[in-house]
């Protein structure tokens, strides 16, 4: 599937990662659902259970999750996750997940499916993505489509909302 040289791939990858760090650097999850809280929601947890779960997420910035082995955004037996995040939580966890995808640290293919499901303009607008962040998400999807099979998993979200960027 790779239609360009390894040198170009490395520079494109590095530029995309740098762009994600730059464009999402000020993103916080203040007021949004945390990752552990999403698991509590999945288990129909009470408000108290959700609060306790939210307090267990001790990172102070999404970038701390990029190399954190304890944080598992990928599929496979986990509860919670992207499906149970609100738009604020989604915007917070997305950049770390995109960077992990780019580095192929793990299979986080669920993010492509979720980017497709959340292609509704209302969701993207609630997530408060800037135009530049939205363009970076579209570039990420295009990059992944050229790096991973099946490409359709990554191209499908581009046919929805993200094609605007």
In short:
The chain is mainly α.
What spatial form do the alpha-carbon principal axes imply? globular
The helix/strand class is: mainly alpha
Helix content range of the residues, please? 55-70%
- What profile does the largest beta sheet have? none
Strand content: under 5%
Please trace the helix and strand order, writing H or E for each element.
Answer: HHHHHHHH
Question: How would you explain this protein's 3D organization?
Answer:
The protein has 165 residues and is an all-alpha fold. Helices cover 56% and strands 0% of the residues. Helix 1 runs antiparallel to helix 7 (131-147), helix 2 (35-42) packs antiparallel against helix 3 (47-56) and helix 7 packs antiparallel against helix 8. The two termini are 23 Å apart. 31% of the residues are buried.
Reconstruct the topology from this structure:
Layout: H1 6-23, H2 35-42, H3 47-56, H4 87-103, H5 110-117, H6 121-126, H7 131-147, H8 151-158
Helix pairs in contact: 1-4, 1-7, 2-3, 5-8, 7-8
Please give a handful of descriptors for the protein shown.
single chain; 165 residues; mainly alpha; globular; disordered N terminus
């Amino acid at each position: 599937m790779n239609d360009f040289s390894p040198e170009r791939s490395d520079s494109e990858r590095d530029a995309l990662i740098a762009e994600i760090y730059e464009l999402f650097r000020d993103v916080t999850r203040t007021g949004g659902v945390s990752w552990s809280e999403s698991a509590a929601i999945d288990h129909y947890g009470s408000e108290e259970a959700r609060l306790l779960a939210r307090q267990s997420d001790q990172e102070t910035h999404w970038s701390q999750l990029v190399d954190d082995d304890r944080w598992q955004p990928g599929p496979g037996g986990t509860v919670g996750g992207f499906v149970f995040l609100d738009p604020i939580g989604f915007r917070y966890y997305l950049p770390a997940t995109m960077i992990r995808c780019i580095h192929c640290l793990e299979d986080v293919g669920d993010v492509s499916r979720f980017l497709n499901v959340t292609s509704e303009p209302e969701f993207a607008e609630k997530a408060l993505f800037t135009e530049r962040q939205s363009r970076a998400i579209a570039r990420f999807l295009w990059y992944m489509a050229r790096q991973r099979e099946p490409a359709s998993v990554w191209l499908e979200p581009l046919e929805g909302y993200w094609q605007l960027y």
